[in-house]
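Figure 6 in text form: structure in, sequence out.
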């Protein structure tokens, strides 16, 4: 096995055609050329000396438009390129050994050829079909057996060892690192080839006994009679289980009349006049999906619902029902702590009584994402002692200044970390200057003599930080020159406003579960404003949660200015429903991601909750307050 620089050129071109993304090393596709220039000699040398070890693969669970959960893989760009080179070397070796009736993941094969052969078999008198759907196909491939099949055709020991490392690669799920011992990861260039290698002997067995079509994990065996089809079904499922360790999906497998079955999205129809079988694509009705998320179903840690579409909320037995003219959706009370409404929703009296009895919060936003108001149960209460202590701290200039300095220096520290991240990956004089400026402002803040002086320094630092936004975003589609509110005048401002409001409400929900009074903050003046304390705590987390989510959705091309925003008559630009869905999903994903704090893995959501309880301990017990700082 020998790799040259030229081997990588074609694969790198293919990589650049993909959606901008990164693996565990945080090197995005649009940054890979620079990375490759610095590192290619080392990497090629490692491969040629059989010393290269693939990076761990990040696995993330997503929910598809049809509501199904799917695991997606994020290889590093380097491994994606290497895997593509390996594929181009291995396909010529193995493809010629595959059955002509294996149609998936092969050049000059595909859905059209599979459907065409199926129609030909039906036309020849095969009136019944034994359909077999392999259960969790990729996940249940035996790696030792697959390695054996690979070694039969590959004599190069170094090649086999490199393939071994990719088969038994480390994966990372929710910061938990484990080595693969069963199944192959979907999403790499080699996975489709590996699946066909694993099934090659099976295909040869079918070819010797039956008329069939196999498309990945879908196997159709066409028979002249129902009895023959059942015999084939039993024979083949036993072969799969005994020889390959693969089970079939009972709900998707069985014996049926051939003409009654849809195959790979196509319907078959017998033409009486010509005695032939015609084929036509099935006309799927596009379903309308109810625009809401149960975040725990995606990340399994959060308990917040976000409702985008119009409807009526009511109590139904011991759960919550939201419905409109087209859809119904149940929200299990056991998995819910708050409901966030971004649309025109009618709240039934039984619903309000029910959530009051269960201690749930409801937050209501207008179509632009601005917070309108909230409903909190009567179980939320204030303790007079805590209220008096909170007010006493606010009125004590020395103590108030002390906690304000801690909050604002933590906020600037986290803003500076964003600058440092981008300066590390895209060094810039502007970013370097801003980092130095922020550092000086932190020193000045610690020397402040009054809250007003502190806030003046904070305003200057925030202005400098926002002046670098355009450089951190680095995308001509999303230009940012200054912060504008009510209305936001461009797409970036729209996301900042929406994200900030989102964080304010998340922190407010937690404050309402304590004895703290949300009206009395420390940094933000407690005057006519109905809420202040949540705004204070949000200052710490906005750079890490909101700003980084904005960078993510732009850099990963998840949001564009054509499809995900709307412009109002007043010149304001806001996220539309599609944009809100994506942005909320990414905010929730960010909140559910974990970092290591004092050796313990914690989500940002838990860190925000912990921040609230730090304030509680500071107010009630005079414990030293140490705000969260990203490191």
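Output sequence:
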């Amino acid at each position: 096995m020998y790799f040259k620089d030229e081997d990588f050129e074609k694969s790198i071109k293919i990589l650049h055609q993909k959606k901008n993304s990164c693996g565990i090393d945080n090197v995005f596709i649009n940054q890979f050329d620079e990375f490759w220039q610095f590192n290619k000699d080392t990497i090629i040398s490692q491969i040629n000396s059989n010393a290269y070890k693939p990076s761990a693969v990040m696995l993330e669970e997503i929910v598809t438009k049809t509501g199904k959960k799917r695991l997606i893989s994020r290889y590093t760009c380097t491994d994606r390129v290497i895997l593509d080179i390996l594929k181009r070397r291995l396909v010529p070796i193995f493809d010629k050994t595959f059955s002509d009736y294996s149609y998936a993941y092969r050049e000059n094969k595909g859905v059209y050829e599979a459907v065409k052969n199926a129609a030909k078999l039906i036309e020849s008198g095969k009136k019944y079909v034994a359909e077999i759907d392999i259960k969790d196909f990729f996940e249940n491939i035996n790696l030792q057996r697959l390695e054996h099949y690979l070694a039969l055709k590959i004599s190069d020991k170094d090649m086999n060892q490199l393939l071994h490392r990719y088969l038994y690669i480390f994966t990372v799920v929710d910061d938990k690192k484990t080595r693969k011992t069963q199944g192959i990861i979907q999403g790499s260039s080699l996975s489709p080839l590996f699946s066909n290698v694993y099934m090659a002997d099976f295909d040869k067995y079918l070819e010797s006994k039956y008329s069939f079509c196999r498309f990945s994990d879908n196997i159709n065996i066409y028979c002249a009679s129902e009895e023959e089809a059942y015999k084939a079904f039993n024979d083949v499922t036993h072969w799969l289980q005994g020889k390959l360790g693969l089970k079939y999906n009972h709900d998707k497998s069985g014996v049926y009349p051939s003409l009654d079955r849809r195959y790979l999205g196509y319907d078959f129809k017998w033409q009486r006049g010509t005695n032939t079988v015609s084929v036509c694509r099935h006309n799927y009705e596009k379903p309308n999906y109810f625009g809401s998320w149960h975040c725990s179903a995606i990340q399994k840690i959060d308990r917040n619902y976000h409702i985008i579409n119009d409807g009526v909320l009511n109590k139904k037995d011991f759960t919550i029902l939201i419905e409109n003219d087209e859809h119904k959706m149940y929200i299990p009370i056991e998995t819910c702590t708050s409901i966030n409404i971004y649309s025109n929703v009618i709240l039934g009296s039984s619903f309000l009584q029910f959530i009051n009895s269960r201690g749930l919060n409801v937050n209501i936003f207008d179509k632009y994402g601005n917070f309108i108001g909230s409903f909190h149960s009567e179980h939320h209460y204030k303790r007079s002692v805590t209220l008096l202590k909170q007010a006493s701290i606010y009125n004590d200039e020395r103590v108030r200044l002390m906690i304000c300095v801690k909050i604002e220096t933590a906020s600037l520290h986290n803003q500076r970390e964003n600058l440092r991240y981008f300066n590390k990956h895209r060094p810039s004089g502007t970013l370097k200057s801003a980092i130095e400026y922020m550092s000086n402002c932190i020193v000045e803040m610690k020397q402040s003599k009054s809250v007003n002086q502190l806030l003046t320094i904070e305003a200057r630092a925030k202005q400098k930080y926002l002046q670098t936004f355009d450089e951190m975003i680095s995308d001509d589609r999303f230009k940012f020159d200054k912060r504008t509110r009510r209305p936001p005048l461009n797409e970036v401002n729209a996301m900042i406003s929406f994200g900030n409001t989102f964080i304010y409400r998340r922190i407010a929900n937690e404050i309402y579960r304590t004895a703290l009074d949300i009206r009395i903050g420390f940094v933000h003046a407690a005057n006519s404003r109905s809420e202040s304390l949540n705004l204070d705590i949000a200052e710490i987390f906005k750079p890490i949660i909101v700003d980084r989510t904005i960078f993510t959705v732009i850099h990963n091309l998840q949001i564009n200015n054509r499809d995900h925003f709307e412009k109002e008559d007043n010149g304001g630009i806001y996220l539309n429903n599609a944009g809100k869905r994506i942005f909320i999903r990414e905010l929730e994903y960010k909140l559910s991601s974990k970092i290591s704090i004092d050796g313990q893995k914690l989500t940002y959501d838990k860190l925000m909750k912990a921040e609230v309880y730090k304030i509680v301990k500071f107010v009630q017990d005079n414990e030293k307050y140490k705000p969260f700082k990203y490191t």
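Caption detail: The chain has five domains: 1-97+142-182, 99-140+189-286, 298-329+336-375, 395-474, 479-622.
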